[in-house]
Design brief:
With 363 residues, this protein is mainly beta. The protein has no helices and 31 strands. A four-stranded antiparallel β-sheet has the order 2-29-28-27, with no helix packed on it. The two termini are 12 Å apart.
Length: 363
């Protein structure tokens, strides 16, 4: 029911980090579900664009695609002859992912249209996937024989370079920013989070000394994000700045599990689980800074995850997906403005409360 009582509000208090899940500013959530799609997933966010996949109603298969902020802007990237396709990353007008031919996954790249598809599958590989793209390079993995190896491309299948660390039984590059890659390598059957700078020898283990296992999913501007699990089975979202010792636990009080899945210029996104259901969220470098993006969704969408984040300096764009209790998934774009300089009149350091004075009429 609409509240008919109108009041004048002179002071608006916005909390960033003062209490878990309190959002700074007003988040808006928009469904990116293409018309006729059975389901959809947002995977990445970049300048004016979101990338992901949607299930075609024609054949029930995933099609890679991109959006420009609304469901109506969906562009199907699915190339002729492919059985399925997925886009995982987007940056600089390029998209990265993979296609399948029915028996193999084949790393792929696009530049905004289905016809621009480039097959990145390395010679001799049985399977490959590109999981990230940035500055004209792609990162992912390829399988040769029984070994899965992390690697990078620069736009062609012949440019494949393995960055598989010595001694690892398996490795995957999952994030890329400029000359830096992040991902995971398996030693003794256990995943270790790691960081590369373009070569196998550059591998740096990011796994905290207290963790049983860890993975790094994304990197940007000197920050890496992922998740680490302790020996008790507790899985916490992680933030690093280049070394294992630099870890910051992003898991907020009351959350039973969390993962940080995307990062951009000091912003981290992923999900937390405070009430038995995953809730998409954004952090700004600490556990108590988390903002609940799930609160902006329709009430029927009870489960959500944020996968990618980007900002133009005035607005934050977060892509991901949400589902209802039946398991129906739809891609979502969350946005909120960044408060302009000078709007904060008082910062209470103890609680991080930002108080902004403005007159408004609420009805």
């Amino acid at each position: 029911m609409r509240n008919e009582r109108c009041v004048d509000a002179a002071v608006v208090a916005l909390v960033l980090g003062a209490s878990g899940g309190t959002a700074m500013g007003q988040w808006t959530a928009v469904s990116l579900q293409p018309a006729g799609a059975g389901a959809s997933f947002g995977q990445a966010s970049t300048s004016g664009q979101q990338a992901g996949r949607a299930i075609s109603m024609d054949n029930g298969r995933y099609h890679a695609g991109i959006w420009a902020g609304s469901a109506a802007t969906w562009v199907d990237l699915h190339p002729d002859g492919a059985v399925e396709s997925v886009a995982y990353g987007a940056a600089g007008g390029q998209q990265a992912g993979f296609t399948t031919n029915g028996t193999q996954s084949l790393a792929a790249m696009w530049t905004g249209t289905a016809g621009s598809h480039v097959n990145l599958h390395p010679a001799g590989a049985t399977h490959s996937q590109a999981l990230a793209v940035h500055s004209g390079r792609q990162a992912g993995y390829a399988q040769f024989g029984t070994t899965v190896r992390a690697g990078v491309w620069s736009g062609t299948s012949g440019s494949w370079t393995s960055i598989h660390p010595a001694g690892a039984s398996r490795s995957e590059a999952m994030g890329l920013f400029e000359g830096e890659q992040v991902g995971r390598a398996m030693y003794g059957g256990v995943w270790r989070a790691g960081l590369w700078s373009g070569t196998a020898a550059s591998w740096t283990d990011l796994t905290p000394d207290w963790a049983f296992t860890a993975e790094a999913f994304a990197t940007s501007h000197g920050q890496q994000v992922g998740a680490a699990e302790d020996f008790g089975g507790n899985r916490h979202a992680m933030l690093w700045t280049g070394t294992a010792a630099s870890w910051v636990d992003l898991n907020p009080a009351g959350s039973t599990i969390s993962e940080a899945l995307g990062v951009y210029d000091g912003l981290q996104v992923g999900f937390v689980r405070p009430d038995g259901l995953n809730r998409a969220c954004l952090w700004t470098g600490s556990a108590d800074s988390w903002e609940d993006l799930g609160a902006a969704l329709e009430p029927s969408l009870v489960w959500s995850a944020a996968m990618g984040v980007w900002s133009d300096g005035s607005t934050i764009f977060v892509s991901g997906f949400a589902s209802d209790l039946t398991g129906r998934n739809e891609a979502v774009l969350w946005t909120r403005p960044i408060p302009a300089p000078g709007t904060a009149l008082m910062v209470m350091a103890a609680g991080g409360v930002i108080v902004r004075r403005r007159r408004r009429r609420e009805c």
